[in-house]
Design a protein that fits this description.
Shape: globular
CATH superfamily of the largest domain: Cytochrome P450
Number of strands: 11
Order of helices and strands: EHHEEHEHHHEHHHHHHHEEEEHHEE
CATH architecture of the largest domain: Orthogonal Bundle
Radius of gyration: 21 Å
Organism: Streptomyces zaomyceticus
Helix content: 40-55%
Protein name: Cytochrome P450
Number of helices: 15
Distance between the termini: 66 Å
CATH topology of the largest domain: Cytochrome p450
Bound molecules: protoporphyrin IX containing FE
Family: Belongs to the cytochrome P450 family.
Strand content: 5-15%
Length: about 400
């Protein structure tokens, strides 16, 4: 075991907002590839920052389990601990299912998502994107985050999952209220949970060409309540990172000369900007987590049975052992760990759905508002104060006002 003379790093504070890359570099310098950290309330955990070590952890779901019951800190965790909803205990969704049951469950989700016709997905993403642009194009200025990125993915996902068009706006509000975690959060969660059960009841009676019906037609023995839980995860875990992928990519295109060409008409650099964001500014920075099922060693550290390991996806992406070029354009290389790795990674069809929604959202915005420009100096753009999901609080822009297309009218 390598003993570090540096104290554990608090996994909070303004540096996660301002310059996380430099912060991870310093943590790696002081502690190595696996660093002791403390969460809210001085709760200890390990942050896995090394690319190789993260690969090792995510490739061995038996030793590094997704089962939060293994945690050796439960006795010290108060009932109102703010990270409790994220760490999760006795939650019946796929996120905390392990072993063969997890493989079956992931298969139910992947097969249902694979059934989405890519042309239908793109057509719906375009239609909802056009509808959102219609609501703001005549104004000449808007906040891309609140008025566009945070409204699009959930609307498209709700539609392909099987919800009726008129339920879309209510689901958008409920999910964003739940994510914001303030007033209306519990009501939002309640509305979503009830909507999932109602959707599954309706689709059981009359199946359609949608994700909910496909999951019901292939439940692998999971109950309707469990399927409802997973649909909830697929909506919540899908929406926010896809919204951040749109926001972070547009920020890059509006602030970095290397991507400015796309703003004057070319589309090819949209994909490059999105790829660059996954390497340098990925939406899911850190993930909680995995629990060691026995005493072991990792990156020169002795890990105790039941210790919590946090997946440092953003830090691993910039690990100098794999990124001698860190800071330069990443081109078509997609060896990033931004979607996780191994059995519990983001399902491949989910990654494809997210990519289509994000890319279409960005392309429609650039087509409709071709002279879009930042309304504030780049240095004033602020991130949400979270070490977990990385995204902007606002992206204020200006553009020449244009009339609405009235696509849905
Ligand atoms: C259509 C949008 C999306 C859907 C439906 C979706 C769905 C899911 C689901 C169901 C899981 C759990 C897998 C399991 O436990 O076996 C998951 C995991 C994950 N997703 Fe996604 N996702 C979406 C978009 C994204 C995006 C845009 C990112 C980041 C760029 C992302 C990053 C992750 C990561 C890092 C994990 C793994 C967590 C872990 O290893 O514990 N997802 N996703």
């Amino acid at each position: 075991m390598t003993l570090s003379e540096h104290p554990p790093v608090p996994l909070s504070g303004p540096r996660f907002q301002t310059d996380p890359t430099e912060l991870y570099r310093q943590i790696r310098r002081d502690h190595g590839a696996v660093a002791p950290v403390v969460l809210d309330g001085d709760v200890p955990a390990w942050l896995v920052l090394g690319y190789r070590e993260l690969h090792q952890v995510t490739s061995d779901p038996t030793l590094f389990s997704r089962d939060s019951e293994l945690w050796n800190q439960w006795d010290a965790i108060p009932a109102d601990w703010p990270l409790l909803p994220m760490i999760g205990r006795k939650q019946p969704s796929i996120l905390y299912t392990v072993g063969e049951r997890h493989r079956e469950r992931a298969n139910v989700i992947s097969s249902a998502l694979e059934g989405i016709d890519p042309f239908v997905l793109k057509e719906r993403a375009e239609r909802f994107a056009d509808e959102l642009i219609d609501a703001l194009c005549a104004k000449g200025s808007c906040d891309i985050i609140a008025e566009y990125a945070m409204l699009l993915p959930v609307r498209v996902l709700a539609s392909v999952y099987g919800f009726a068009e008129e339920q879309g706006p209510g689901l958008v509000t409920a999910l964003n209220d739940m994510i914001n975690g303030q007033e209306g959060a519990l009501e939002g969660q309640q509305h979503l949970a009830e909507s999932m059960v109602a959707l599954l009841t309706a689709k059981a009676a009359e199946p359609g060409d949608d994700v909910a019906s496909r999951m019901l037609g292939n439940t692998a023995g999971f109950t309707v309540e469990e399927v409802a839980q997973d649909l909830m995860v697929m909506l919540a875990a899908g929406h926010q990172p896809t919204a951040d992928w749109i926001g972070n990519s547009l920020r890059l295109m509006l602030t970095d000369d290397r991507f400015a060409a796309s703003l004057s008409g070319g589309r090819h650099s949209v994909g490059e900007a999105m790829n660059e964001v996954l390497w340098e500014d990925t939406p899911t920075q850190n993930v909680a987590g995995r629990w060691a099922s026995r005493d072991t060693h990792l990156g020169g550290r002795r890990i105790g049975r039941g210790d919590l390991l946090l997946l440092g996806l953003a830090a691993a992406n910039s690990d100098p052992h794999v990124r001698a070029d860190a800071g330069r354009l990443t081109g078509g290389n997609n060896a990033y760990l931004s979607f996780g790795h191994g059995e519990h990674r983001c399902p491949f069809p989910a990654q494809e759905v997210a990519e289509t929604i994000a890319r279409t959202g960005i392309e429609v915005l650039l087509d409709r508002l071709p002279d879009v420009d930042l309304a504030v100096p780049a240095a004033e753009l602020a991130r949400r104060p979270s070490p977990w999901l990385r995204g902007l609080t606002a992206l204020p822009v200006t553009y020449t006002p244009t009339p609405a297309l009235g696509v849905l009218g």
